[in-house]
Amino acid sequence: MRFSIRLTCGAALACAAGTLLSAQADSTVFSDLRPRSIGPATTSGRISALDVSGNDPRVIYVGTAGGGVWKSVNAGTTFKPVFDEHVMSIGAIAIDQAKPDTVWAGTGEAWVRNSVGVGRGVFKSTDAGQTWALMGLQDTERIANLVVHPRQSDTVYVCALGHLWNASEERGVFKTTDGGKTWSKALFVNADTGCADLAIDPQEPDTLYAAMWQVRRLPYFFTSGGPGSGLFKSTDGGKTWNKAQRGLPEGDLGRIGLALAPSRPGTLYALVESKNTAIYRSDDGSES
Description:
Elements: E1 2-6, E2 20-24, E3 47-52, E4 60-64, E5 69-72, E6 80-81, E7 90-95, E8 103-107, E9 122-125, E10 133-134, E11 143-148, E12 156-160, E13 172-176, E14 184-187, E15 193-200, E16 208-218, E17 221-224, E18 230-234, E19 242-244, E20 256-261, E21 264-272, E22 278-282
Antiparallel strand pairs: 1-2, 3-4, 4-5, 5-6, 7-8, 8-9, 9-10, 11-12, 12-13, 13-14, 15-16, 16-17, 16-18, 18-19, 20-21, 21-22
């Protein structure tokens, strides 16, 4: 291979303008250079999930859209990757606050832009993120939230958004009572509607709130909302659910984000996508 370089020299350079340099290059020129990974070939800068240990707030787990799970033990001063051997797209992280060495990771980011990655189910670590085991739900593709029962560590709820590009039965709210060995479907609306958010009452943990979202993305359009969307409540640990509608906008709803006030769990906030998107507040556990 032969190449030429033409330099335009400034006054500070001891050469005349237009000097032509020629050089011969062969395979030995680059023989000492080694290729290195510069990261996944996708938009990965988004932070999609985060949880902090209640026993030691210096311990933080962060899930990313395209970079796996990262952990800090010094309140965020430094982070190290702890999930590189598994899945790059993360949708949810949950520390078992009763047993903080137990951490759950739901794979597949649920913020569904057109460059979103795909997950491979639910993973669990019992040694503070050093090793992880796949616990099932591989076909959910995208998990929006994970909720661990505050008094029963083996009881975990998974909020699965599911497939983005097609209809699928593997979506909704799933529940395990044996630490992830087996799962049952606690809430399913239809094959086009997944779970966008999930909240549990810390004082009455049989009470759960689920935001269901009918959504579909194709290469040429994105549809958010439909008759399947809505806010659902269970008071028996997910066995039965009722749809909460009083006070919410009429017509089809889109995505809903949920937050319970820790000091007053009967107070629920919902960011509701509709024709007039707004934040709604309930002080009676979603009755109104």
